Amino acid sequence: MSPSANTTLVSIDDIRRAAATLHGVAERTPLMRSYPLEELAGVPVYLKPEMLQRGGAFKFRGAYNFVSRLTHDERIRGLVAPSSGNHGQAVALAAKLFGVKATIVMPTTAPRAKVAGTERLGGRVIFAGTTTAERMDKAMEIIESENGTLVPPYDDPLIIAGQGTGGLEIAEDAKALGLDEYAVLVQVGGGGLSAGVSTAIKNVTPRAKVIGVEPAGSPKLSRAREAGAPVTIASNPKGLADGLLAVRVGTLTFEHHQAYVDEVIAVEDSDLPPAVRFLLDRHKLVAEPSGAITVAALLANVMRPTTPVVCLLSGGNIEWDGLAALLTGKQ
Amino acid sequence: MSPSANTTLVSIDDIRRAAATLHGVAERTPLMRSYPLEELAGVPVYLKPEMLQRGGAFKFRGAYNFVSRLTHDERIRGLVAPSSGNHGQAVALAAKLFGVKATIVMPTTAPRAKVAGTERLGGRVIFAGTTTAERMDKAMEIIESENGTLVPPYDDPLIIAGQGTGGLEIAEDAKALGLDEYAVLVQVGGGGLSAGVSTAIKNVTPRAKVIGVEPAGSPKLSRAREAGAPVTIASNPKGLADGLLAVRVGTLTFEHHQAYVDEVIAVEDSDLPPAVRFLLDRHKLVAEPSGAITVAALLANVMRPTTPVVCLLSGGNIEWDGLAALLTGKQ
Predict the structure, then answer these.
(1) Residues 51-80 of A with CB under 8 A from B
(2) Could you read off the pLDDT of A236-266 as tens digits, one per residue?
(3) Does A313 touch chain B (CB under 8 A)?
(4) DSSP state of B45
(5) Are residues B70 and B53 in the same domain?
(6) Is B314 a catalytic residue?
(7) Partners of B174 in beta bridges
(8) Contact A192, A161 (CB under 8 A)
(9) Same domain flag for A279 and A186
(10) How far is B289 from chain A (nearest CA, A)?
C-alpha cells in the first residue's frame, strides 16, 4: 500500500462541477478523427486539440476552476503562480476575467511566446532560475512580501478537477461514438493533466486504458512508479518538451496516477520535431513539442496500439519564430 | 430581372440531405470563439475552421456529396476534376473512399502542398496552363478520351448543397448560442462555398447577414453584381489567395449570391500574410492565404462589424515550406 493511500482522490463529481464552472468560459474542444495517423497506426486515431483552448493550452481549465473557488478577498490580494509558461498564461487570463492582478514566476529559459502571451494578458512576469523549486521559492517569497494568493500549478484537487474536464469531454465524445475499449495518450509533467484526465476516463469509460507519456529526459513518473512514491530526478532536466520538465510528480497527482494510469511510456526529444511538423502539415494545427509528444509516441512506434487511440494535444504555445527555429533545427 | 432568374436555387432541404450524407464521413468542425479578434473588433467574433476538415479544406463537403449521388457506373469510369488545388484533393479523397480513380487537372502554378496532397490520396495529377478555362478544357479532353465523369468545382447544385453544410453547421451553432443578428464573412472564388453557405445561413437565421470576401486582384463577384450577370475579368489574375482566383463566378452560384449575399468586400494581398500569422500565433491554426482572407478583412479594417461576426476559414493547404516562404516574404 502506498504511503499516502489515505489521500482523498478527486471524484468524477468534482470534475463534473468543474465542467459546470467552465461552461461558456472555456472552449469545449472537439474530438477530431485523424485519418492520416490512422493509416500509419492501423487503428482509429482521434485528437483532442487543446491548443484550441483559451490561452493555447489545457491549463486554463484548472486555473479558472481554482480561481473561481477562491473568496473575493483571496482573489483581490493578487494571484501568484510559478509556471514554465502555460500555467502562467492560464492564470493571467483567469485573473483578467476576474478583474484581479497576476504575477507569474517563470524560468529564465521560458519560450518567448509564453512570456509574451502572459504579458499580453496583463500578467506581471518575474524570472527565477530554471527549476521548479526555484520558481516555487520565488513565488512563496512574493506571496509573503505582497500578501498574494498562490495558484498551484498541479498538485491541488481543484486544479486536477479542472484539467479533468478535458478527459470528461473525451470520455463523453468517445461514448457518443460507441467507443468502449480505447486508449488515451496523455502528457505527464507535474501530473495535473494526467491525473485529472485519467480520473475522468476511468470513471466514465472503465474499459478504456490511460497511458502517460513523458520525455525520456525527464522520467519522473516512471521513476516514481518504480519507487512507489514520488522521487526527485536530476535537478535540471533539459529538453524540447519544456512544459513537461518537472523534476518530480506531485504527491496528490501521483496518487491519481497509481489509481488510474495503466502504463507510462517515454519519447525521445529527436522524435518531437517530426510530430510537430506532422500536425502542422497534415492537421493544420500548431503544437508545441510537449503538445505533440503523444503523436510522436505513435509516429516513432513507441506505442503500437491495438484499440482506437486518443492523443491529447496539450498545447500550442510556440509562435512563428519558435516554430521556425524548431523545424529548421536552428534553435 | 436577371437572365437566368428561372434557375432553381438549392434549397435548405437539399443542404440538409447533403448533411445527412456527410454525417460520420466529413468532420463537423467547431464554431470557435476568437477572443483575440474580439478585442480588436469590439464585437464577439467566431471562427469556423474548415482547415480541420478532411483534406484540409471545405471542398470535401461538396465533392463527397456530388460523388455519392453518381451511379456506380458513372463512378467506376473514373472521376475527373479541374482544380486550383483544394477541390482536387477533395475529389481524390472522395474517389479513394468510393474505391475509384481520380484525375485532377491543376494549374502549373499550383502550390506543392496541394499537388502532394492530391497524390498522397492516390489522385493522378495533370497540369494544364494557369487559368480556369485551360483546366476545364483539359478536363473535358480527358473525359472524352477516357470516358471519365466530371466532378465540377462549383457550378452545380450538389456541390453547392455540400458546401452549404458548413453554413448549416454555423447557423445551428449560432442559434444554440442565442445569436440572431450576426454577420458571416465567407470567401468567394467560383462561388460554390459562398452560394451554399449563404443559402443555409439565410434560410435558418434570416436576420443574419452574409458578406462575400474576394481578393482585390480578382473581383469577379463585385463586377458581376455591377453588371447584373457573371462577367469574365482579366484573364490571368495573380495573387496570394490562390484558391480564389477564378476569372468568373458560376452562373448558378451567381443566382444564389443575388438571392442571399448582402454585400461584397475586397481584401488586398498585402493584408493576407499578417492574417495567416495571426491565426498561427494566436489560434494555433494553419490557414492558407485564401482561408485567412476573412480574418484579414477584420484585421485590416475593411469591415467594421457592429454585430457578432463569424469568419469562415476555408482551408489550410499550405505545408511547412510554403508557410515559411509566405511568412518570411521569400516566395
Answers:
(1) 51-52, 54, 56
(2) 778 999 889 888 999 999 999 999 999 999 9
(3) no
(4) E
(5) no
(6) yes
(7) none
(8) no
(9) yes
(10) 13
* Nine-digit cell string for B201: 445561413
Q: Could you tell me the three cell numbers for B262?
A: 448582402
Hey, which residues does A85 pair with through a beta bridge? none
| Chain B residues in contact with A89 (beta carbon < 8 A) | none
Q: Please check whether residues B176 and B271 belong to one and the same domain.
A: yes
**A104 in helix, strand or coil?**
strand
B206 & B249 share domain: yes
What pLDDT, in 10s, does the model give residues A136-160?
A: 999 999 999 999 999 999 999 999 9
Q: Would you tell me which residues 258-277 of chain A have a C-beta closer than 8 angstroms to some C-beta of chain B? A: 277
In DSSP terms, A127 is beta-bridged to A106
Tally Cβ neighbours within 10 Å of residue B304.
10
Instruction: Please give the ipTM for the structure prediction.
Output: 0.94
Q: Which cell numbers hold the place of B251? A: 452562373
Q: Looking at beta carbons, which residues of chain B come within 8 Å of A277?
A: 320
- What residue has cell string 460507441? A178
- Report the predicted TM-score, pTM, of the whole model to 2 decimal places: 0.94
Phi, psi of B143 (to 5 degrees): -60, -40
Q: Quick check: is A36 in a domain?
A: yes
What domain range is A191 assigned to? 12-58+156-328
Task: Specify the pairing of strand B149-150 against strand B79-82.
Answer: parallel
Can you spell out the DSSP letters for A30-85? Answer: --EE-HHHHHHHSS-EEEEEGGGSGGGBTHHHHHHHHHHHS-HHHHHT-EEEE-SS
Which of B281, B286, B314 is most worth mutating to test chain A (most A CB atoms within 10 A of its CB)? B281
Find how far residue A75's CA is from the centre of its chain. 24
CATH number at residue B139: 3.40.50.1100
Provide the H-helix boundaries in chain A.
Answer: 12-22, 35-41, 59-69, 72-76, 86-98, 112-120, 132-146, 157-176, 192-204, 220-227, 251-260, 272-283, 289-299, 320-327
Whether B1 is in a domain gets the answer no
